[in-house]
Amino acid sequence: MSGYIYTFKKFIRDWMLIIGMLVGAGAYLIYHSIPSLHGAGPVLEAVCTHLQPILLFIMLFLSFCKIEPQQMRPHRWQAWLLLIQAALFVGLALLLVWALRSDGAFAQRVAEARIPIESAMLCLICPTATACAVVTGKLGGNMAGVVTYTILINIAVAFLVPLMVPLLYPMGGMSFGMAFSKILAKVFPLLIMPCICAWIVRYLFPKLHAWLLSYVDLSFYIWAFSLTLAIAMSTRAVVHNEGAPRLLLAIALISLACCIFQFWAGRAIGAHYGCRISAGQALGQKNTVFQIWMGYTFMNPVTSVAGGFYTIWHNCFNTWQLYRRRKALETASPSRP
Question: Could you tell me the pTM of the whole model?
Fold first, then answer.
């Protein structure tokens, strides 16, 4: 009996992310198909909306607890990743601005592809997921480098998005200062406060700090639950999206291409600095809940679907990476129940 229990627990642990994705998508589709449940929709939405930031806060807090303050210093690979994200986002934005204000066949084709291009912009500029440090640690990467990059890219996003969006949507009624403040208000509590709280615990409550570190996989399981909520919200965005099927397919393919490119580029750059895993995760694993919010808030709402599709792609890749990592560790040191 103990062997079956061990096998079941191992199966759940090994495939936690896929299970979380299936549960999240399935739960929303069941809710959507049963009209009698729709009355609970506002309450469920409020629960998800408020619970998601709390879970992200806890994950980042636990990540900061594992990192010494002196470990959080900039690296050269982070500068290259920032350059890639910023240059591609600004370049695509300026291309769209030019196309919308110019004549000619090429400009017209670019303008007609506005929504797919904006979807790519969101996939490329989207900041690193707060749960990225959890996966990076599981894969044997440098958690401190990933957390440092998470802070840097969020600061960059807070400047670049409100700088470029008014050029694309000049009638949006939102000034640079308003957009900057809105993004910063969402970013600050999830980045700075966990860091402050973790360092307070580290230096003032060492026993509590040691107790938190004793739960090695706590962040991973919190992330799995957070992923379930994110997938449910992403499924909701896809189901209620008014875009045509061909447009949704184009967005899905664009988000897949962006995911593949960013994981590849991050790993290629990181390989030159001995941080292949960390750089790959930092560039490829995205805060897709934030990406969906940016699409709804600053661009055409259809573009928010790109965040839902990206959630699927990068978590499938993470599941595959974690599977390979587990197999490598089991081969190196096989264990019995």
Answer: 0.77
- Contact (CB, 8 A) for 129 and 191: no
pLDDT of res. 337: 47
Contacts of 11 (CB under 8 A, 6+ apart): none
Residue keyed to tokens 């994705």: 21
The overall average pLDDT reported for the chain is 81
pLDDT on residue 241: 65
